[in-house]
């Protein structure tokens, strides 16, 4: 079992920044790719960014150049630095980890609200 706990969400004005953290515990040796997803009210959950254990990253077009995903394997933690935030970034942000084969762990989510 792997447990993921997110933190760092909150309310910020448009143009501001937030940093999300996701700490993993449990069978952390099984963790492969980690990712951030988000889900806005009335919309489907969407992939925001991914990072491999080796640090290779990938981003949704909507956040490229504004968000940075990073990973500290020693701390079993993944981060999402969000800059130049827009109201359309408002969503619940979820941490996700691939824990082998087609198995995934999810965090409980953290709310990010960007006011205009």
Account of the 3D structure:
This protein is mostly beta strands and 116 residues long. The strands form 2 sheets. Strands 2, 4, 5, 6, 9, 10 and 11 form a 7-stranded mixed β-sheet that branches. The protein has a 4-stranded antiparallel β-sheet with strand order 1-3-8-7, with no helix packed on it. The chain is built from no helices and 11 strands. Helix content is 0%, strand content 54%. It has strands at residues 2-7, 10-13, 18-26, 34-39, 46-51, 57-59, 67-72, 77-82, 91-98, 104-106, 110-115. The termini are far apart. The radius of gyration is 13 Å and the shape is globular.
Write a short abstract of this structure.
It contains no helices and 11 strands. It is an all-beta fold and 116 residues long.
Structural class: mainly beta
Q: Report how far apart the termini are.
A: 40 Å
> Which regions contain 5 or more consecutive residues with pLDDT less than 50?
none
Shape assignment: globular
Biggest β-sheet strands, sense, barrel: 7 strands, mixed
What portion of residues is helical? under 10%
Cα radius of gyration in angstroms = 13 Å
Global mean pLDDT = 95
Q: In percent terms, what proportion of residues is strand?
A: over 45%
* SS summary, helix count: 0
The H-and-E topology, N to C, reads as EEEEEEEEEEE
Total strands:
11
